[in-house]
Amino acid sequence: MPKSRDFLLCDVFSDRVGAGNGLAVVLDGSGLSTERMQAFAAYINQSETTFVLPPTQPDASYRIRIFTPVSELPFAGHPSVGSAHAVLEAGLAQASNGELVQECAAGLLPMRVDGEGANRVISVRAPRGQHMATSDAAKALLPAALQGMRLGELAPALINNGPLWWCVPLADEAAVRTLQPAQAAIAALNFATQSVGFAVFAPADAADYQLVVRAFCPADNIPEDPVTGSANAAIAAYLHQCGALAPIGNPYTASQGRELGRDGLVQVRVDDEGEVWIGGKTQTVINGTMDWESQERA
Q1: What is the DSSP letter of 156?
Q2: pLDDT tens digits, residue range 175-223?
Q3: Where are the alpha helices (DSSP H) in 90-152?
Q4: From the CA atom positions of the chain, what is the Rg in Å?
């Protein structure tokens, strides 16, 4: 008999349903093989799907595995924030003094929980971002990926914070909002550098956000991701390491997803140790059950 498993669909980095970035969370992934997890992630076709599992380390509150429709990720921001929301809603974990610890392939990640219900803000400390060197062959692909872009003063950089992200500063908010990216060239660059995506950003002069971001992941069959925690964390690490945070502020709020009708807001903070925290609100949209065989078909 197939095992019936509870799951939910939620919108992360949003104060209302229908905005932010959608996430599927399977609340009990026990007994599912990697292949079946990946198959379900492809079937449900959210930008990411997570599977909650018992922790393997004593300090962890819970453990998750994170999948795009085509691959597993060691860390991703909106799945981390949304999964914490899901386990709290389901009573699978309890915050202690406003804190949780998430176990994932990137290690043990501290989480911060402030508030309750639809107004609860959950933040995750992202893995520390590091600048990565690129080969001459990969560098040769960068100009094609940048075609049509009005670039900012800082140079594009490849940042590793679990996944690898190209972080590309543009001249201003309009350059980000109106961009028509060269998807095939970006995909070629992603494949060559084993990076998950290509994030463009610029300072913004708005009442409720200070940075505007868009993230493109064509190599994962996601032309544009609505709201991307790991990309925002990579950008914050990049700005901090370049000494370029002051004009934007710290903490700051990033706007992402408006071009897709999702209009999410990500709260970003770089702490005194240089660690990046990303957070926001999450809304539960669907609670359901799913039957998904744990065995491969013979």
Answers
A1: P
A2: 999 999 999 999 999 999 999 999 999 999 999 999 999 999 999 888 9
A3: 136-145
A4: 18
Residue position matching structure tokens 């370049």: 242
What's the angle, vertex CA 131, arms to CA 130 and CA 134, rounded to 5? Answer: 135
- 134/140 Cα distance (integer angstroms): 10
Helix axes 136-145, 183-193, angle to 10 degrees: 160
Rounded to the nearest 5 degrees, what angle is found at the Cα of 40, between the Cα atoms of 128 and 164?
20
Tokens 């350059």 identify what position? 175
Nearest alpha-carbon partner for 195 in 225, 217, 179, 176: 217
> Which stretches of the chain are DSSP H helices?
34-44, 77-89, 136-145, 173-177, 183-193, 229-241
In DSSP terms, which residues pair with 99 in a beta bridge?
Answer: 96, 112
Q: Which two tokens stand for residue 10?
A: 């939620």
Strand 252-256 to strand 211-217: parallel, antiparallel, or no bridges (unpaired)?
parallel
Tokens representing residue 112 in the block: 């911060």
Q: Which of 48, 173, 224, 275 is catalytic?
A: 48
3-state secondary structure of 162: coil
Instruction: Give the separation between CA 126 and CA 110, rounded to whole angstroms.
Output: 9
CB atoms within 10 A of CB 148: 10
The model carries a pTM of 0.91
- Which residues of the chain fall below pLDDT 50? 297-298
Q: Any catalytic annotation for residue 273? A: no
